[in-house]
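User: I'm new to structure prediction. If I give you an amino acid sequence, what do you actually give back? Let's try with this one:
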Amino acid sequence: MATIAVLGTLDSKGEEHAYVAEKIRARGHRPLLIDVGSGGPPTVTPDFTREQVASSAGLDLAALSARRDRGECVVAMSKAAPVFLAKLAAVNDIDGVISLGGGGGTAIATAAMRALPLGRSRTEPSLTTHFFPRGRGDLRNGRGKNRGRGRPPVSRRKYVREHHRVRD
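Assistant: Good question. You get back a string of structure tokens that encode the predicted 3D arrangement of the chain. For your 168 residues, that looks like this:
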């Protein structure tokens, strides 16, 4: 039975992470919910709280949260999460990690995943990948093939490739 860390911002994506944890449990493995959010309270009960993650790197999460600067909190948790995950991996408490994230959650989770030694399973289907502009032309002052047309189309193939591991 493998132990899989389910790492994420449980204040905004708690239900999604709980769903993934339940699917892991249904397949006979042990999920560990790890909260790295810094907004409101988590919507599900984590196995490891955000305070535990922050304190592993010597950060005072209460002081960071009091400033209400989301960017600063994301940067801080991007430094704390790798330390915490590396400690779990060093004592063989986890066999792999999965995370679901928007912009901030993806930044935190991928930073944490880079701290794992080679050979550990890692999966980060980012919910933001569908909304990045395609081609350099879209990034130059609104000029380019998608100017004035909203978000660029996303192929079903790309969607399935990004999300096939978390679906039934």
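You can read the tokens as a compact description of the fold. Here is one thing that stands out. The domain at 3-126 is CATH 3.40.50.12020 (Rossmann fold).
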